Automatic annotation (TrEMBL):
SUPFAM superfamilies (alphabetical): alpha/beta-Hydrolases
Organism annotation: Streptomyces similanensis
Feature: compositional bias, Basic and acidic residues: 690-705
Name of the protein in its database record: Integral membrane protein
Organism ancestry: Bacteria, Bacillati, Actinomycetota, Actinomycetes, Kitasatosporales
Membrane-crossing residue ranges in chain numbering: 65-83, 95-115, 157-174, 224-245, 257-278, 299-316, 336-355, 367-389, 409-433, 479-502, 522-542
UniProt entry keywords in alphabetical sequence: Membrane, Transmembrane, Transmembrane helix
Residue ranges, annotated region (Disordered): 185-204, 674-705, 744-781
Amino acid sequence: MHGVGGTTPQEMLDDPHTVRVSGDDTAALYRRAADVHAESRPERDGPVPEAYVWCNLTSGDGSRALWLLLLPFMVVNLAHWMRPAAHGRTRTVRLYGLLVRLTGLTLTVLFVAAACEVALDLAAWQCAGTRACAARHSWLGFLAPGAGWWSPPGRRLALAAVIPAALTGLLWYLSHRTWSAYESQQPLRRDPETEPAGEGGGSDGALSRPGFWYGRRLVARLRAAHTAVGLLTVAAALAAPAARFDRRPGGPALLDLLGWLLNAALIAAAAAVVGVVAGRGRSEQRVDRRLDRHLVRGLPLGALLLLVCAALYAGWSRPAWHSTGRLAGDAAFGGVTLAQGLLVIVLSCVALALYRTRPDPRAVLRGLGGPAVALLACALGGVMTGGVAQRVADWLDGDGTSMPGPPVLLTWQASVIPPLLVVLLVLGVRLALRARRLARAGEPAVARDYPHDPPDPARTHRIARVRALATLTDQAPRVVGLTCAVTLLLGAVALVGGLGLHTTPARAAEGTPPFVAGAADTAQALGSWLVGLGFILFVTWGRRAYKDASARRTIGILWDVGTFWPRAAHPFAPPCYAERAVPDLTWRMATWTGATGGRLVLSGHSQGSVLAAAAVWQLPAEVRRRVALLTYGCPLERLYGRWFPAHFGPAALTALHRDADCWRNLYRLTDPIGGPVRVPAARTPGAPPETDHAPPEADHDDEVDRAPLKDPLAYGRDAAHPLPAPILGHSDYRADPAFAEERGRLLARLRPDLPAPRHAAGEGAEPDGSGAQGNAGRSSG
C-alpha cells in the first residue's frame, strides 16, 4: 500500500501491464496481468504481488477542492482522537468527547454567524440601508431606502438570510453525500464474543473493535444537530434586531409578545440541539446499523420552521424602523469566542486528569495535544470568518466612510495576528539554528557509517544536514504548544479589547505615546491585510485545485493524515477514507485466506502503514495468524503514537505486535516522517517502549525495528553505483535491498505449520477474494 500522495499501480508493481481485480475508480486492488489467475496455475511459484491504490479517496474529482473550507472542522475532529490514554476513567473519557463535540458545535455557529454578518449586517443592513453605498452597487439598488417593497430593514434581512441558510444547506449536502459514500461501507462481519481476550479486546486495542470504522449513526445524528444549529443561528440573526426594535417604549405589544415567544422557542430548540450533541458519542463494541430517523429528520425540519417564522416576524411592516449603525455582531462573536475559550480551558483540565491515570512521557504536551489542536481549530475558524468579513466590508465600502464596517471584535482579532507571526518567525529562526548545530554535530556519525569510503566534506555535510532536518518533526509539539499559548493570550487580549473598549485598536491607542499608537495602527492595518490575504489564498487555492489535478493531489496529501479518523466530533469535516479502506483490506485478506488457505505479507509505506495496522487490528484471530506486517517510512509511533496516545500509544502497539503473527519495520535517519515503532522484542503486553531513537543493533526474530537503513546506499561512486546515489529520505524504500530481504524473511517465518495455498481449479481473481494481497503474496509451499 502506498502512502500520502499516492502512485500508480504500474509503479507499485514494477510492471506496465496491470489489471484491476477488485474495487472501483475510487479505490481498487491491482495485479500484474501475468498473475491474474495465479491461484489456478499450480506451476506458478513464489509470492504474488498485489497493490491497493486508495489515493482517489482523498484527491479525486474537483469537488474535493471544497474541502479546504472545511479545514477547521477537520482539525477539531482530530482533537477528539488526541485524548490521552486512560485507565478506569470512563466518565472522564466521555466528558472529554462531549467537550470536543461542543467545541465543534461552536465552530458551526461561528461559520454561519460569519455568513450572517456578511449577508445580513454588511450587505442588507449597512450598505443597502445607505443610499451612497447602495448607489455604488447596482445589484443592491432594489433594497435601498424608498426603492420598493424590499426596502424596509426587516424584509431586507429576511431576503439576505437566504445566503447563510443556503450555506448551511450546502454543508448538510456535502456531509450527506460523503456519508453515503464512506460511512455506509459495511465492515467485515465478526463476532466480538468469539475473540480471545487480549487480542484487541482491551482498552489498548480500540481500533480492533467491530464498530470502530462504522460511524454511520453518529454522523447522521451530529449532522442533524449541526444543521439545526446553523438554521437556528440564522433565525436568531433575523429575530434579534426586530425584537430589539419592538421592545422600545411605545412599541406594538403584539409584536413584542411574538418576539419573546420566538426567542423562547429558539432557546428551547438550541437546548435540544445541545442535548443531542451531549448524547453518547460512539458505540464501538458492535456495528450499530440503526438510525435515529425521527431525530435526524425532525431536528433540522423544526429549525427550518423556526427560521421561516423568524423571517415572517422580521418582515412584518414597521414604518418607523430604519437601519443605523451595526447589528449586534460584537455580542454574538464575543459570546462564541468566550465559549470556545472556556471549553478549551475545561478540556485541558480533563485531559490532564486523564493523563495522570497512565502517564506517557512521549505523549505530546503531556496529554494537552487535544486541547491545543482544538484551540488551533477555533483560531483557524476565526481567521477564516474574520477574513471574509474584512474583505467584504472593504469591497462594499469603497471610500471607507459610508459604512460602520465589521464588528470591532473582528478588527481586534485581526490586529493580534502580526504579534503571533513575529513569535512564529523567532521560533522558526531558532529551529533553523538548531538544525544547523545538529548537522555539524552529526558529521562524525556520518563518517562512521561509511568507514571504507574516502572522506568528502561536502557529501558528509549534506547527509548530516538532511538527518538534522529530519529531526525537526520531533519539535512539532513544542511549536504547537508555544503557538497555542500565545494564541490563547492574544485572543484574550482581543476579546477584552473588543468587548470592553468598543473601539478599534488604533482609536483606543489615541493619546498614548507615539510608539504605542504607531504600533497599534500598524498591527491593525497589517492584521486586516493578512486576514484578507489568507481568505484570498484559500479561495484561489481552492479554485486552482478544482481545475488542476496536481494541485488537488497536494490537497489530498493534507487530508491523508487529517481524515484518517472517523467523524466523531464534527459531521461537516471531510469524510474518513479509512472507513472505506480498512473494510476493503480486511474483506480481501479474510476472503483470500479462507478461499486458498494461503499466507500474506501486508506491507505499507507511510500512511499506508497506518492503514495496514488498522486492517490487521480488524482481522479475526484465525486470519491474523496467516498475516505478517511489513511497515516502512512508518509514522505509527513517531507521529500517531505521540499525538494519538489512546489508540497508538505503547500499550496499543505492543498489543499489535502480540496479536500479529510477525511484524518488521524499516526506517531511515534521514526520514522526517517515518521512524522506529519502539516495541520491545519480548512479546510482553504493557512493557515500556524503547527510549532511544534507534533500537539495539541485534537483529532478533521478535525485534520489530530493523537497524536504520543506510541513506544514501552508497557514499561515493563504486562499481554498483557509478553515479552519485541520492538521499532518499521518506521515499523509495522498496528500492533498498533490505525491503525484499525482510519480505522474504517474513513470508518464510509465517507459521511454517500452516498448509500451502489450495489451488482451486478455475478459481481466479473474482470479487470473492481469491487473490494475493498487497505487496505480498502466496506462499511458495
